[in-house]
Design brief:
Number of strands: 2
Helix content: 55-70%
Strand content: under 5%
Order of helices and strands: HHHHHHHHEEHHH
Structural class: mainly alpha
Strand order of the largest sheet: 1-2
Number of helices: 11
Distance between the termini: 17 Å
Largest sheet: 2 strands, antiparallel
Radius of gyration: 18 Å
């Protein structure tokens, strides 16, 4: 299905175009043993497959069940690591968990700042943000991962959560939003 619908060509074209624009090479990252599953789960491959398969005529259409267009949803995906990154930086710098930011206001600000960004620019930003997230996870040590954190999106009274729980569960954010993009994929729109 993916090859016949042009995904393979679009993916490699995007990879080649990106490579031609840069000479930077990513450093090898070593992750704490307990966080290695998170590093694998946060690979951008599946999200890139979905992004590169979006029917271009759908970017400005309303996303199903959301108050955003598909492009605005991509802008959220592109910047979606900002809360996790803030926590990880604070933990690395201080050895303690910091307070949660105003997530709704932060998301709204990031969407507003990217209101004229196209899908290519947002995809590049997503890859940059994801690399930074992985770089930060690689800087964590076992003591950081054992720190307790109050996960505001979990019911009160659950067992205490750790930074490791937060890091391991973060890919659920990606999956949820990636699935919201899927109805705009070319094979999904060609059957309508």
């Amino acid at each position: 299905e993916r090859i016949w619908l042009g995904y393979h060509d679009r993916l490699h074209r995007a990879d080649i175009e990106r490579a031609l624009r840069m000479t930077w090479r990513p450093p090898g990252l070593t992750f704490p043993q307990a966080a290695r599953p998170a590093a694998g789960a946060l690979s951008p491959d599946e999200t890139l497959y979905v992004i590169n398969s979006i029917d271009p005529s759908y970017w400005e259409r309303p996303a199903r069940g959301l108050d955003w267009t598909y492009r605005q949803l991509l802008a959220h995906i592109a910047t979606g690591d900002w809360v996790l990154q803030g926590h990880l930086r604070h933990i690395i710098e201080t050895g303690a968990v910091g307070p949660w930011p105003d997530i709704e206001a932060g998301n709204a600000q990031r969407l507003h700042e990217r209101r004229s960004s196209n899908d290519r620019a947002l995809t590049e930003e997503y890859l940059s943000m994801r690399h930074e997230t992985l770089r930060l996870i690689a800087q964590l040590d076992d003591e950081h991962l054992k720190l307790e954190i109050d996960l505001w999106f979990r019911p009160k009274g659950e067992h205490p959560h750790t930074v490791l729980d937060y890091v391991l569960g973060f890919d659920a954010h990606d999956r949820a939003h990636r699935d919201q993009l899927r109805p705009a994929m070319k094979h999904a729109t060609s059957t309508r």
